[in-house]
Write a structure and sequence with these properties.
Elements: H1 24-36, H2 39-57, H3 72-169
Amino acid sequence: MSTAAQPVPIEPPPDHHRPFGSDTFGVQAERFARFFGTPTFIVTQTGIVVVWIVLNGLAITNAIAWDKYPFILLNLAFSLQAAYAAPLILLAQTRQADRDKIRDAAFQAHREAEAKRVADYETAESRVLVQDKALAEQHTRMLEQNTELTRQVAKLTSELHSVICERREG
């Protein structure tokens, strides 16, 4: 029989970057949501819209123009983009909110631990000050006793000296 303690399984730390786990869909949703707000996306989309309007607006024949004014197909493309962009952005925001919640909880725990540490330090410091005061008072009493004893020794020495000197003379 072995008396050694069984090893305790260590749980991996929580994944703060992916609160829903490492699911590919959520990660890709965050990437798309980040991309929708970049200057690259805005400039590229603006360029595509300008080319679309120029090609369809200035088209001389119907064979070249696939979406004449009022650009219904372009409107449909924007609607489709918005229909997919909104849920992806909301998913990314939810994941970020979960990360923020984890970070805030860790920060709050740290703040509480720091407050407890400071309170414990102040309590210990107060205890040390009380002990120092008691030691100082004890030291003062001992010094007074020492002074009194020194006086008594001086008095006794003087009396003894007087008695010894009287005996020698007499």
